[in-house]
Specification:
Blueprint (H helix, E strand, L loop, with lengths): L1 H4 L26 H4 L38 H11 L3 E3 L6 E3 L1 H20 L7
Antiparallel strand pairs: 1-2
Length: 127
Amino acid sequence: KFLKEVGIEPTMLTFPKKGPGKVPSSRPDGDKASSKPKVPPKDKGAPKGPNVNKKQTKKGETQLALKWKKSENFAMWYSDVIVLSEMISYYDISGCYILRPWSYKIWELIQEWFNPQIRKLDVENAY
């Protein structure tokens, strides 16, 4: 109803009913677990190599290169990218971080564009 009031005509899509059938060709055959990369079992007695865990980096130590490959561990790779690009700094309190000046500028630019878009829709903005 809201979309029609603002002059947008919604397009209704029909989808086939879900039932027993063939798995779509975009998915690999087998279950989800079989599509995950195989990780060799860890030897409990072996010493940990460098950069196995990001937390091994000592506080105040400078990182000069990415420690993780995007395809191996996306979460750790992403953390490395935003820290090494000096977008954020981590704080001593778990879950807290500090937006560095140019990442904060990016946030402000997003807000400058997004806020008028929200106001056009007569929606109350919240963070």
